[in-house]
Design a protein that fits this description.
41% of the residues lie in helices and 14% in strands. It is built from eight helices and six strands. α5 links the parallel β3 and β4. The N and C termini lie far apart (52 Å). The structure holds farnesyl diphosphate (FPP). The site of farnesyl diphosphate has 19 residues, from α2, α3, β2 and α4.
Length: 252
């Protein structure tokens, strides 16, 4: 009988140190379109497969004890894609949310969406609201999906909110520090990511979590997102544990 690798990797691999796992992993799920083209399929099939990958990595976080996963699903710039692809993605998000919600509740996953949610189709907004409310007390993994998200826009949104409160005399400008600023970001309450994984080879951040990624370790793999499996995630975590995180300081 052959045992698949993913079954073998149900437990935390023994070469990883449980005490030095990242608390929070962020992923830029790139390469869906190119993956599909290589298989002779339409680009949207890559996104469909990408959902399976995301589910697998989320489950892996739960199995291995990683408490937060944030995925970049749709950027503010992605509206510039062909309208059929954008429409497909909106429909896919909605359908996946509807289909997976019961399991997310059972698995104790907290779902959160970040981004300019008001700019999404009404029916998707309703599904997002429903899933966030239904899972708000869940604790095993905080699963955040960045949709209609832009890092610069998020920072401007926080600036505007703080400026308004300063104008109203509710905040003393001298008290605007990092902690207060973070409380005005979409990701309020989430720790900053320790590790950013980008699939499909591009070496850029693409307007993702610009504030929050300040000290994240960056891992880029050539593997396209639909092929990113537990073995690949294991390799990323191994690379992370071999990094020397100094946060701008020197080792004594
Ligand atoms: C980037 O690949 C991928 C996206 C823009 C979409 C990713 C979305 C999902 C995997 C669905 C997630 C669903 C939910 C509900 C959370 P690309 O199209 O840019 O690939 P390419 O660079 O090869 O063209």
């Amino acid at each position: 009988m052959t045992v698949s690798k993913s079954v073998l990797l149900k437990q935390l691999p023994t070469d990883l140190d449980r005490d030095r796992l990242p608390n929070h992993v962020a992923v830029i799920m790139d390469g869906n379109g190119r993956w599909a083209k290589r298989q002779g399929l339409q680009r949207i099939m890559g996104h469909r497969r990408g959902v399976d990958t995301l589910k697998n990595i989320l489950r892996c976080c739960k199995d291995w004890g990683i408490s937060a996963l944030t995925a970049y699903a749709f950027s503010t710039e992605n509206w510039g894609r062909p309208s059929e692809e954008v429409e497909f993605l909106m429909m896919l998000f909605e359908r996946v949310l509807r289909r997976e919600l019961a399991e997310m509740i059972e698995e104790d996953v907290r779902i959160r969406f970040v981004g300019n949610l008001a700019g999404l189709p009404q029916s998707l907004q309703a599904e997002i609201e429903r899933s966030m409310t239904a899972t708000k007390d869940n604790r095993s993994v905080q699963f955040t999906i960045a949709t209609n998200y832009g890092g610069r826009q998020e920072i401007l949104h926080a600036c505007r909110a703080i400026a308004t409160q300063v104008q109203q005399g509710k905040i003393d400008p001298e008290r605007v520090d990092e902690e207060l600023f973070e409380r005005h970001l979409y990701t309020k309450g989430l720790p900053s990511p320790d590790l950013l994984i980008r699939t499909s080879g591009e070496m850029r951040i693409s307007n993702f979590l610009l504030w929050q990624l300040a000290y994240a370790e960056i891992y880029v793999t050539q593997t396209a997102w639909p092929d990113f499996d537990r073995e690949e995630f294991h390799a990323a975590l191994r690379a992370y544990q071999n990094r020397d995180r100094r946060f701008g300081k020197v080792k004594v």
